[in-house]
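Thread: quick sanity check before group meeting

JM: Hey all, I'm pulling together slides for Thursday and realized we never actually wrote out the predicted structure for the chain we discussed last week. Dropping the sequence here so it's in one place. If anyone has concerns about the input, flag it before I start.
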Amino acid sequence: MAARNDAVEKFTVGSPDVWWQRGEQKIFLGDVLDGSNDVKMSVGYARYEGAESNPWTVTYDEALIVTKGRFIVDGENGPVAAGPGEIIYLRAGAKVVYRTEEPTELVYVTYPHWYEATSDSPKAAQLAEFHRAD
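JM (edit): ok, ran it. Output follows.
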């Protein structure tokens, strides 16, 4: 749960009310701020529990802040890798493959809200790959 103080909020990896999983892969997403909040961006946590990958077309601007492990984004111009404390920035329209070779955790920040931007795009079918994690 978030700690609130007027316009200032704090979140932890335990803050998401719901975690989403991609198919049977060990890829999990948990929003802490999304379209249901009175904010203009989405913020959340992602966990990749081992060597995993998923192709995606980004329909929003996104910053990925790696907190553990190593995260790789394969883009049209080759791979970009980041470790703890490093950031990868993606522009709307990027066709990528998110990938990890080890357990990895990161924070994502998107504008506009990633779910709504994807739902309203020709890439909406990508969302069907995710289900509530048990």
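AS: nice. Helices lie at 114-119. The chain has one helix and 13 strands.
JM: adding both to the slides.
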